[in-house]
Write a structure and sequence with these properties.
Layout: H1 3-14, E1 25-31, E2 36-37, E3 42-49, E4 52-60, E5 66-67, E6 80-86, H2 88-94, E7 104-110, E8 117-124, E9 127-130
Parallel strand pairs: 1-8
Antiparallel strand pairs: 1-2, 1-5, 3-4, 3-6, 6-7, 8-9
Length: about 130
């Protein structure tokens, strides 16, 4: 695949019917051991309620490793505890690598619904790290 066609695929992944929509909670996966984006990783976001975690949405990272539409358009997040789950074993299996973590769950507290919350995940087959991004 040429650089131009690869770049075109990246641009296509970013184009959505409503290009102005950006989820109030987003995520990004980087494969630290390879120095590449975590492409096409299944992601789920949930919110804690009185009965446990309830799924809000499922998505998949794009070719740049991002989920700019993690929450559905029109969803207004509320204060509370959220959990994002990345299906890392499935990803590493697709590229022919073993991994120690079959999935990564990041639990965080959304204290101010008016702010944007970005959850980056840096992963390798045997380690991961995360932080609150911007």
């Amino acid at each position: 695949m040429s650089f131009a066609s690869s770049r075109l695929d990246t641009v296509k992944q970013h184009l959505k019917p409503n290009m102005s929509y950006k989820s109030p909670i987003t995520c990004h996966v980087l494969i630290a051991s390879l120095g590449t984006p975590g492409q096409h990783i299944d992601v789920k976001i949930e919110k804690l309620d009185t009965t446990g975690f309830t799924t809000l949405s499922t998505s998949q990272t794009n070719s740049d490793g991002r989920c700019p539409t993690l929450l559905p358009e029109g969803y207004q997040p509320e204060k509370g505890i959220y959990r994002v789950t990345f299906q890392t074993k499935d990803y590493f299996s697709k590229i022919g690598q073993d991994c120690f973590y079959p999935y990564v769950q990041i639990v965080f507290e959304l204290a101010n619904p008016d702010q944007h919350y970005h959850i980056p995940l840096l992963i390798s087959p045997y380690s991961y790290t995360t932080y609150r991004g911007s």
